[in-house]
Design brief:
single chain, 447 residues, mainly beta, 4-stranded antiparallel sheet, 41% strand, globular
Amino acid sequence: MKTSTKLIIAVLILLAIAGGVYWYLFFYGPGNGTPIPTNTNNGTTGGFIPLNALGGGNQNTTGGTVGTSTDENGNSNSSSTPIITETIPTLRLLSADPIGGYGASTTASTTIVRWVDRGRGNVMEARGDSEEIITLSNTVLPRIYESVWNKSVNAFVGSLLSSNNDIPTTIYAKLNIQASSTPPKTNLVSNSGSTTPETDLTKLTPYFLRGKNLPENMLTYTVSPKGDRLFMLIKESGQGAGYISNFDGTSVAKIFIQPLTQVNVEWPEENTIAITTKGSANQAGFLYFVNPKTGIWKKVVGPIFGISTKVSKDAKYVLVSSATRDQGIVTNIYSVGTTTPIDAVVRTLADKCVWGNFYKELVYCATPSQPVSAVYPDDWYKGTVTSYDKIWQINVKNSDIRQVSSLVGQVNQLINVFNMSTDTRDDFLFFMNKDDLSFWSLDLNSR
């Protein structure tokens, strides 16, 4: 046998051994404890597999000293000697790297936002009163592409894509305090996206992730307004079965089964789940309200071609975008219970809008600086058309419309806004850039 052949065989054997060790640590490594038992409530399928809880990893710092304490909800309280002393920018880049969803919570003193790094699965945290970005956990959980968070932002439900499977796995994951750790130093991110890292392999993050798989064949899901319950739409026998559960997937109750599988869902108000058929320029769609207690359906608007919707947090108003024959967009606002639309004046997809949590009469929309002709919403979903946006605020009670931010005028960067939300007090607007999946915040009190 040639020397080169022997060398190749040796390398392959070493790679196989390394791969086996990695997967053993991922599923059965330190911190996992006893596996969570399989849930069989109400006929749902799919076993629950605990996530890994590896400790340690790379930490980044600018040289500031950070101390972190925790409360019973897993929220960290940091004190530091800051390196950067200038005013926190109104429009702030939180993550230049792609993220896999986020959640925000408001305390008595500030707003906390947490997100999942899409590549590795690290959980990160930023606060409204500090420029520091904290690494909360570095549990290896790659390819999380979306997530929803509970009220305390110490747990999330997310969708994970494995490298060899196009069908996502839905998981529940919770931040658990490390038994013994030295809090990580921070990695400050400037408004231009540059970082000043310093690697310290001896530091542990204050938390690790532990969780379980949720039922298989999950079509979509959303979190309740109080952040304590989950609505899950699961494919069963070719139909969509709706379930309500606790946020961690326990205490499952089936509320309906319908021949609809291609839908978008929201839970804007405790007694209202909003279900909209996925929009296409060549197909008429509908918005329905479903009572989470009774499972009773009620049609709200439709049929509308190219439909996309956002429902206000009191379920009294609906912003609806639709397709036009000349490859444009019409955006209207409906008062629930009426069939006469009000022109929203702005022209944008409902996917680029969000209603206020505290000021329920306000809706924020990102609109293209220059209209772009396309087949809406299809081309935007596919990513074949993009837009560079400004953000507007609309008051549905007095029809007042004002520009909140030009975006490009504040950061000299073009942003294609999507996945917008506000914190509970409407102090900050959070959103992602659809073109690069970066993550941003806009201080609504600094305008």
